[in-house]
Amino acid sequence: MFEGCLSLCDQNSRMIAFRKFLNKKSLRAVTGEFLATLIFVLFSVGSTVNWEEVDDQPLPASRLLISISFGLSYAVMVKCFSDISGAHINPAVTLAMVFTRRLNIVKAFIYLVAQCLGATAGSAILFVVTPESVRGRLGVTWVSSSLTVFQAFMVELLITFQMIFVVYATSDPKSTHLKGSAAVDIGLSISIGHLFAVPYTGASMNPARSLGPAIVTGFWEDHWVYWVGPILGAIIAAALHKYFLHPSLKKPLLDGVSEKEEGADMLQATNMDESNQPESFGGIADLEVDESNRLESLNDINIENPADNESDLFSTGKKNEALSAV
After folding, report:
1. Is pLDDT larger for residue 27 or for residue 315?
2. Which end of the chain is less crowded, N or C, counting CB atoms within 10 A of the terminal residue's CB?
């Protein structure tokens, strides 16, 4: 009977989370994730098409061209969609966010569906607009004949590890020393991965990117490598960054909301109106929210009369935010 009650509670919790997700802002986020993945796959995978044999002025699909295209495409999509969906554009990113409790499972599942559909749609469009004589495998990722499957798995794990580590480093609100655009940093990490791994595995780093062309062309050889390798690499990188190199001073809750201190602050946290809280997508957009909160906390400190800071910080419940911002 007790187990039945727990099962019912779990089902009710999932239904509540699903209904909470069904609002205009969340639907816009899912649509944004779909479009971002579609555009990314269409233009980046399109760079792998080799026109050398049919074009009077050939532009072969070189490793450098492919690396630049993938990096720039991802960077531009992150810049455009970060405030709409968090701009994951990659199931490995989404699952890493779930593992580190920056995204709830319901939202993550819908994101995964949107990413896979977007990648498939982008690949289908590329298939339609590309002449049959130059389609080839249409950017399908496959393991080099010189590699074992284990070696290919490790390559995908390693290049995704470095990419996800950059994602977390550039979206960490505690990393105040970082300057410039997070989108550019992430794009460069993807280009680096391609410069290294294109001859090995095609440098996926993104299960959706591999899934789309595989569905359109029907080429599935060693396809599991491009799911297990990137996802495991993403989880290792996220865990290393969050729990060891940059441990949080506060206990993280789902969707990026941090727990207040025990006692009075905990009571205040339980009474907060969630409708007034900024929506978290577990991506780059959260950095902008955290930066604005940090500035507001610092502005509350009286520099001219430091003695007033103690009472003001306690009364407003902002002591922890200000301390973590310094």
Report:
1. 27
2. N
